[in-house]
Amino acid sequence: MTLPKKVFAMVQTATRTLEARDLPMPEIDEDSALLKLEACGICGSDYEQFDGKLRTPMPVIPGHEPLGVIAKIGDRAVARWGVDLGDRVAVETMLSCRFCGPCLGGNYHLCDRRKIYSYIPLSEAPGLWGGYAQYMYLHPNSILHKVSPELPAEIGVMFNPLGAGFRWAVEMPNTQPGDTVVILGPGQRGLASVIACREVGAGTIIVTGLEADADKFLVAREFGADHTIDVENENSVERVKAITDGRGADVVVDVSAYATQPVVDALSMVRPGGTIVLAGVKGFKTVDNFVSDLVVMKEINIRGAMGVTSTGYKAAIRLIESGRVPIEKMHTHNFDLQDAELAIRTLAREIPGDASIHSCLIPPH
Question: Domain for residue 317, yes or no?
Answer without folding.
Answer: no
